[in-house]
Design brief:
- There is one protein chain.
- By secondary structure, the protein is an alpha/beta fold.
- It folds into two domains: 22-174, Rossmann fold (3-Layer(aba) Sandwich); 179-307, Hypothetical Protein Tm841, Chain: A,domain 3 (2-Layer Sandwich), CATH 3.30.1180.10.
- Helix content is 36%, strand content 26%.
- The protein contains eleven helices and 13 strands.
- The chain has helices at residues 38-43, 68-74, 89-101, 119-127, 145-159, 164-174, 188-192, 198-207, 229-243, 260-273, 286-292, and strands at residues 27-31, 46-49, 52-55, 58-61, 82-85, 106-111, 134-139, 179-183, 209-216, 219-227, 249-256, 275-283, 297-303.
- The strands form three sheets. Strands 10-9-8-13-11-12 form a six-stranded mixed beta sheet, with helices on both faces. It has a four-stranded parallel beta sheet with strand order 2-1-6-7, with helices on both faces.
- Helix 3 (89-101) packs across helix 4 and helix 5 (145-159) runs antiparallel to helix 6.
- The two termini are 30 Å apart.
Amino acid sequence: MAGRGRGYARGARRRLRGAPRVSDRFAIVVDGTACLTKDLEREFDVRWLPLHVDIGKETFTANVDLSAEQFYAKIAAPGVITGTSQPSMGECRDVYDAIVRGGTTKLLVLTVATELSGTFSVATTTAQAMPGVRVEVVDTRSLAGGISLIATAVGRLRRAGGSFDDAVALARRMSGKIAILAVADTLEYLKRSGRVSGAAALFGSMLQVKPILEVKDGVVHPLDKVRTRDKAVARLKEVVSERVPEGSRLHACTLHTNEPERARELGEWVQERFHCVEHWVAEAGPVIGARAGPGVIGLCWYREDETK
């Protein structure tokens, strides 16, 4: 699913041989906008709801029959129209049923904000048709790394023996509180997804303006516009530094859409400036790429003291 790109994770612990599988207590399910590394996905036994990507007249399931590499190759030609769509109830039911067949009857489902997708509604309606199974669907008020950081937080709670109710409460408490800042390389894809007007996109393209975006309580806001990519990244660092005291204990995720080197550099800066209890870099994947375009780098984080 989306976001299962290359990256690295700090402090990852491998499951001990012979230890009970975490899914024996409850399952953690994220939607296809999340961005986790393969190691984190395995470590926390995360399951995925599929999201779909439209390229021209073709429809694909992100990271099932369309990898990030294939997606960027397909949209390289000028004028290619992209879009996204939520999973069907049947697809949600297939994911839920597979988990139940494995012996787990408690599911915590973390979805992208309702303003950005109908996934929450579909996941909730499907859950109501699951007798004998407890499914809690949480609107994270976020996307991408925001969902992912909530998933790893509840995963650690589960590993420490926390209850399903504790995990649901933690997920709801964290929802809407993950900070997300990103630099987009172009306004064109944001225009197509209705985030900026066509006139603004044309004006920004002519001036090579790089927008700095913030996701706040489920809504994407333009925070600033800066000439040149390097200046935009420098401005993003300024904003982070203004909001987070140096040396703070952070849980963070650096994401990108086909910009691994720039994301790696941003990740290194974050780890040098702050005490990163948790950090990884990941490709955000085709779903985010279809909405924001290639060339995005972003940082998602929360301070450890904010979840206590």
